[in-house]
Prior knowledge:
Helix content is about 20%, strand content about 35%.
Amino acid sequence: MRVRKYPREMLPELKNAEWVDASRRPYVRGTDAFIPVKEGYDADSVLAEKTPYAGRGYQMLGDVAILHGTPPTPEEITGICDWLHPRGIVYISGYTGEKRIPAASLVYGECGEVCHHEAGFVFYLDPLKVMFAMGNREEKTRISGVIRASKKDPPIRCADMFAGIGYFTIPAAVSGATVHAMEINPDSFSYLEKNIAANGVGPMVTPEHGDCRDCLRGVYDHILMGHFDAPAFLSDACAHVRSGSVLHVHTVGEQSEEIARCCAEAGYATEIIPYRVKKYAPGVWHMVHDVMIQ
């Protein structure tokens, strides 16, 4: 690969330069960046082509690699470092409690706040402190489409009962909803406010720090329930719906019958369409149920 060598911090300002081969990824080593050069332009040197990565799976949040599953071995960490040269590597074994606090450890480099871009949105967070809904990209896009398809004047009113850092709040607001975003974790709430500003949706979102059961007010057209314990909150949500409202209930495994029973106890008939979001465990799916209130 023909490259030019520049300081790493110059990557953003050079990415659109005429000579840059945008079809190839820059190679970063320490503080140096080796940027691919188009044919017909001079290069500083030629790098040997990298062999395909065949190591442990990872996900990227900004410039930090995130690992799940079993604890990583030193060899796996070295393999990821040699391939990605990340600022840091964080191992997350799970999330605990209603505040969804990550059981996380820094296994390489440094972490702190990262800036993550996904589906045209910007999310700031610290992976050691707060949860990010990895793998929910398609569901965020689907919710955006649902909101756009149901636009009305005045804008639809949406509740996000477990807003986190805004991973569903932001797409809903960008798509035209006014969103009442509730979050109980103070660290997540701080990033929720920052991400609302970063995505320019301040006029569309009302953030509120507290237990969503105490924050719900009025009647909503859509209620986002992005927490695996969502069925336990259905009675609270059903106190704020009317015929035509839609609940988006996340669960581990398909739970349409239980959701229908809970809504019936609140006095509502329902039409429920379940969707698979992603694999949660072997043979078990993370599901979301669109619950149309009759």
